[in-house]
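Practice problem: predict the structure.
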Amino acid sequence: MVPSPLALFLVLGAAATVLAEPLRFVDCGSIDGSIQEVNVSPCPTQPCQLHKGTSYSINVTFASKIESQGSKARVYGEMLHVDVPFPIPEPDGCKSGIQCPIQKGHSYSYLNKLPVKSEYPSIKLIVKWELVDDQDQMLFCWKIPVQITS
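Answer:
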């Protein structure tokens, strides 16, 4: 018997849900928005084990408190209280699941990738992810502990 496409979709959806448990995060200054949920997939336990040469899916559900024409992501690895910029493939929030212009009172799902390059050192650090509006104010800012591993 061949499984139906719907059955496959449901099984894959259930598997993805298991891998994308909502994370415990620290809000580090969301002024113009409020974070409802942060997911990093796969990250079944915290601190997230980020394997070199792998890309991780980021999904942040947030509500905007303002209107903005656009948004831009900034990602950092925080080590010894110093923010080291962490490049991501697409910093434009309007190309990352958010329908722009952003409207006050609406909820959005921000989707992006976090590539962990092979040349990164094996280290424990804090990932800090910011999304700013067109006035450079924080739509959201969250932090989670991670460990980069081989």
